[in-house]
Fold this sequence. Notes:
- The chain is of the alpha/beta class.
- The strands form 3 sheets. The protein has a 6-stranded antiparallel beta sheet with strand order 9-8-12-11-10-13. A 5-stranded parallel beta sheet has the order 4-3-5-6-7, with helices on both faces. A two-stranded antiparallel sheet has the order 1-2.
- Strand 11 and strand 12 (about 255-265) form a beta hairpin.
Amino acid sequence: xxxxxxxxxxxxxxxxxxxxxxxxxxxxxxxxxxxxxxxxxxxxxxxxxxxxxxxxxxxxxxxxxxxxxxxxxxxxxxxxxxxxxxxxxxxxxxxxxxxxxxxxxxxxxxxxxxxxxxxxxxxxxxxxxxxxxxxxxxxxxxxxxxxxxxxxxxxxxxxxxxxxxxxxxxxxxxxxxxxxxxxxxxxxxxxxxxxxxxxxxxxxxxxxxxxxxxxxxxxxxxxxxxxxxxxxxxxxxxxxxxxxxxxxxxxxxxxxxxxxxxxxxxxxxxxxxxxxxxxxxxxxxxxxxxxxxxxxxxxxxxxxxxxxxxxxxxxxxxxxxxxxxxxxxxxxxxxxxxxxxxxxxxxxxxxxxxxxxxxxxxxxxxxxxxxxxxxxxxxxxxxxxxxxxxxxxxxxxxxxxxxxxxxxxxxxxxxxxxxxxxxxxxxxxxxxxxxxxxxxxxxxxxxxxxxxxxxxxxxxxxxxxxxxxxxxxxxxxxxxxxxxxxxxxxxxxxxxxxxxxxxxxxxxxxxxxxxxxxxxxxxxxxxxxxxxxxxxxxxxxxxxxxxxxxxxxxxxxxxxxxxxxxxxxxxxxxxxxxxxxxxxxxxxxxxxxxxxxxxxxxxxxxxxxxxxxxxxxxxxxxxxxxxxxxxxxxxxxxxxxxxxxxxxxxxxxxxxxxxxxxxxxxxxxxxxxxxxxxxxxxxxxxxxxxxxxxxxxxxxxxxxxxxxxxxxxxxxxxxxxxxxxxxxxxxxxxxxxxxxxxxxxxxxxxxxxxxxxxxxxxxxxx
Length: 766
């Protein structure tokens, strides 16, 4: 079978033997003439007698040329058949010919109905063998070859679509005709917003007009232009780009298109020259060599990989060689190397999927979902801004002094501790059901005159045998609990010792669940209870963002990073080890103390909300999904497989982090009245922060928490939707907590009911 080489720009295409389908209801001179012509031209020929057999044959063979007999309508409807074929994807580049009768006695009829039906052209019947042969040869070097080149364009567009550079193609009049996904991502537009629009965004430069003239004078005479300029994204942000604009010469030797290729500029992607104009015509060997080198470095279209990849396989091998030469290799680097190596021998669908995985892995924040548009719910935006960022880093003359020079309560300054056996009856009664989830912490708060932590701590620590594990006396534990509680601020509406006691209760409840007991060791239980007790000690009632914006001494001490959580952990150990009377660790063996200390610190730091989604996603992927897979595969009874998942050191860390995170923000899963009370307290604390920010002239971190306008139901629903639901779904799947999930659903309905009535308060009016 003959194979033809076709030159298409710099591409050399190999065209296999052409296939022709003849659709004639009956054999006659005309069909025989085309059959003979196919044999002479070396084309493979198939014959179909009915529309159904023609369609089936075409879908099987994908012919290059189809010739349909339109002379005798009594056999079949040729136009209907053509339309049927054109509805198939396979016919996109097929040439379809209509054979019509020769009429010498009437006026020539219009060809438009045939074109509308999908025919490429018509052939007036002529059974001469050479006439048929000439028709096929003209088709081969005319329409068929043109369609063959168009088919090859799909590979070029695939390269453009997968290119990491942003590519824009405009007409000679600067009307946008194409942009690739990388351009959409860089500029924030969708392709439909740009196509057929004139270029209105111009480079921003000190000498804008001169700058544009320089570019235009270069590209209009057929030269390439390369340089830096600023462009505006859809959202108004200005970005600096390294751009190359290439004129494309077409029909009549005129410039018919301009291709613009852009990359974002950064410190690792500077070009040596601000701009340069490159002759696009013939050059000397040295110029050509320089030109090719520059294209390789800055214009690699990366046709074999997608936007997230490292470029062509040649560049990947070169890059990987440099990476492998590093003496230190981060785990994420190893993962990317493994994926890159797998891509080299993978089929295209797998390689493309791996490209998408690489693109995700290279983002700066792997775990935090990105808020969508600026129209996002303001309550969610403010909660994320207030809880998951470290402020605006704005320098302020108003320094917010906290804790660095503050006097903390120590054991010697407190009244002598009371014994567990001497607890007043009202307090004993308030703690009767402390092992149940519906335990009422506010009743204990009232009974203890806002000192619930000492009493609840004594009871829970006794139940878990903490003194025995630590080898410390009950009086030391009582002194320690008093010191820790004394350093919670009773003036805070939310972050006070009642919150600490509530988190301690939730932690103890979770530790009693069967799946958790299977997973954790005694030292983990001790660490979890201590971490819950101290996790917010000396909290000022303000967020990390506030402290960073205010330039507080704590923010400076901890470099604006996990400020409060670092302070809570550090102060807890300072208070504990400062005085032997309350040092619950003083009798521990050194290595065991170091291990315990590390777990406590890790759990306290896990309560910082900037890592919220990282902790939740790791828990889901490392624990929930493997356990679910074991159950789906019928291995639920395979204790060893489940134990392997639960007991690995890495997974135990994830479980402990998830446990204290869920305990810390479990308010929406409490019985309704408790949930409402906690919502009121946290709202009041945020209102007070907004008031102080305005008084001090600081950035207002959460503007929706204005006591005059805030909708508490909306803020609760936003918090639950963004932070709570997914986390507790995952924790429930692990620990089996149907009662918590029932409370959560009821509380969501309650807040939605208030919001639906446009009420902004905690409770409906009587």
